[in-house]
Design goal:
This protein has 344 residues and is mainly beta. It contains two helices and 31 strands. The strands form four sheets. It has a 19-stranded mixed sheet that branches. The protein has an eight-stranded parallel sheet with strand order 12-15-18-21-23-25-28-31, with no helix packed on it.
Amino acid sequence: MSVKIGGRSKSKASVSRAHIERGFGKHRVNWAEAARMKKLRRAGVLVIVCTGVVWQLSSLPALAADCEAQASGDWHTAATWTNCGGNIPQTGDNVTILGQSISVSAAIPSLASFRLEGGTLTAATGVDLVIETSRDISIVGGSTIDVVTGNMLFIANLGVTPTTGDFAGIVLQATTISAAGDMVCLGRGGDDAATTDHDGVRLLNSCSLAAGGSIAIQGEGGVSAGGSVGITSDGSSHVLISVGSVSLEGVVDDPEHHGVFINGAAIDGQSGIVIEGTPGVIEASGTTLSSAYGDIVIVGTGAGSAGAGEIDGVDVENAAITAGADLTIVGVAGAGSAGDNDGV
């Protein structure tokens, strides 16, 4: 192969900067500037060159990496990760941990999504575990999370403009989570009118949460073709134990589905329990609520009308409730007379 420069031919191997500069004539190459622009482009910066002047118009977000743990170790060490650009996870990246044991010793940046499957995540002494995503958080497959001395906070899809897509905000399935302090889960399902089941927070299959402080779960079902619930706890052996209080607040803009649906869970909030659902709260099939020293409060607003869904404000079926202080159940009947739109 040959390259023609300024009317002369040279073999590819013999082309030098001097040859190139002679070929461009008066438009001499600024090699330092060229190198700088190359770095800017790699970083996602839009650069325009005109008559020797460089304008850096705006910084564009770099493409998200799909970071995956390749070995057990420290979250903040690059060698722990693959497909991560030779770095640790950065803001906006997707993070997946499949079976590894990862330790967290500092803050984690906001992510696009987070999935822990069959692995372990441990927040070191003096460190709070905060995971915030613009999409979903999934802790599944027998995973374990341990926050040794601090608090735990999960936030999924709570931006000003919710993320579209077919997903539940937070999924906790067959997992064990413990925190010395408070435990908070705030999730919203994706918006996709063509698909179903975009729960805000979903607890499935032998999920255990234990906190030395309080447990607070808030969920909002996303727009869907049906089946979205604010908070659903469905399956068996769901255990929420808190030295402080336990609060569940679920909402969904769908008159045919529940704000909070609890099926077969054991909830123990020593300082009290508050459950609020719009529309409706249902507790069924072996659910137990207990508070040794505090009040238990259940509030639900029914929904439905002729030809639509039938959601009671509060529906308690085959459940046991034991309060160390007061028990308060407040149900507001749904509109219309289609059937089961009772207050309680």
